[in-house]
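Example record

Each entry pairs one chain with its bound ligand, glutaric acid.
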Amino acid sequence: MPEGTTRIAALDIVREAGLLKDKAYIDGAWVGADDGGDFPVLDPATGREIGRVPNMGAAETRRAIDAAAAAWPAWRARTAKDRAAVLRRWYGLIMDNQEALAVLMTAEQGKPLGEARGEIAYGASFVEWFAEEGKRLYGEVVPAHGTDKRILTLREPIGVVAAITPWNFPSAMITRKVAPALAAGCPVVLKPAEDTPLSALALVELAERAGLPKGLINVVTTHEAKAVGGEMTANPIVRKLSFTGSTEVGKILMAQCAGTVKKVSLELGGNAPFIVFDDADLEAAVAGAIASKYRNAGQTCVCANRLYVQEGIYEAFTEKLKAKVEAMRVGPALEGDVQQGPLINKKGLDKVDGLVRDALDKGATAVLGGKVHALGGTFYEPTILTGVTAAMRMATEEIFGPVAPLYRFSTEAEAIALANATRFGLAAYFYTRDIGRVWRVAEGLEYGIVGINEGIISTESAPFGGVKESGIGREGSRHGIDDFVEIKYLCMGGI
Ligand SMILES: NC(=O)C1=CN([C@@H]2O[C@H](COP(=O)(O)OP(=O)(O)OC[C@H]3O[C@@H](n4cnc5c(N)ncnc54)[C@H](OP(=O)(O)O)[C@@H]3O)[C@@H](O)[C@H]2O)C=CC1
Ligand SMILES: O=C(O)CCCC(=O)O
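Structure tokens for the complex follow.
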């Protein structure tokens, strides 16, 4: 059997479902780039091309924004219940096609199939959630400042939304933005990541089948992110930018949005501390560390980035963690039962390996892994480093790879200070069985999300987001729709 045959066969389920697209989607039509240009989408496990999509620029983005603006009045005029019915149908279609969407995601992103199935369900859950939440966009009646007056507030859709999403969660990062926008009555122009546009296009195909009117979701595919992002941020019709990605790019986009004073939501990088106290349930802490650290090969913004282990259990924790991690199977996720796939691309691999080399050069020890995997390509060995210190680059930089750096600490106060010594503030985790400590540490951590005796914190019903340079705004939960509405105050006099 020629190399890669199994993988091509696996994509048959996607083709048969009509979900393997090769065009972008603007104003309800599947279209190519104006100049006919396109670019390949590669399977990170093999480097093989699995599809091609249009390489669009500012002109196509402008057209998508105009289409969104044209679609807005009719959509905002519909009842919330009516909009919810479309979203509910979209949710149903996503779940009906869970397997095909998961295979497609694994093919273009590389994560294990089980994780991809989980992400499809997780992504769909935002559509279901916001279908309901859109019905509850209540205004207020406020006690007035005069007997002849009445004060009311309305929560109105903000207008055309631009969304820019990353490759690490090719489906859920889209639905977490698009679903609340649509539910609130806003149209969207989406730029998915260059590495994973196919999942975005498949989702939109299903939205079309669900009966979403033209112009309400537009997908501009590109490998010239600056041109598309430049138009999205400069165009005055766009009233809101929602971005998930690196802090560096988030800052650029925020600055670009200043020119037209757009509302921004930024879900940026993290540097999550994972603290294990001497009194922790060790088995639970190891399981939580593995779930938090190695999910998606360590390529999540909420991944444990610094594992602080109290000195009394440092050796025991290291041993137990090592025993579990060395049993993890690494490989192409469509070809067998693996727990870790490849990293997204060569740039990602080089970043991870560079951080590991820096730590080893400065005195850390690789008790497991520590180099590119024997499979080659972008596979990296599941890695555990001990003796890591604040002088090493990985103490301050987001690793985004399957590398667990273990730091040693002695006191609770020291752990909190170390955990907070970062410009980031997205997720933090700690394990202890002392109820007093639970409260002290939870309140002491300067983070938007805190997992307490828990390594997986994501759910559609909780507010996801960071403080400091990890971002602005919250996604998911009842708060996740707030960023897509403006509050209008009505003052009625002469009563
Ligand atoms: N918070 C998070 O969840 C994420 C954090 N990261 C962090 O960022 C590092 C680098 O990853 P990377 O993929 O390069 O992240 P980026 O921030 O570059 O990419 C995220 C999204 O932004 C787009 N983008 C990049 N530059 C611009 C621009 N100037 N204008 C408009 N859009 C732009 C990308 O497009 P394109 O794909 O075409 O480049 C992609 O759609 C990772 O190692 C990780 O540390 C990365 C992804 C997600
Ligand atoms: O890494 C990210 O970009 C978001 C984390 C995914 C999640 O758990 O919701």
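Residues 166, 168-169, 172-173, 244, 300-302, 458, 464 surround glutaric acid (ligand 2) (CB under 6 Å).
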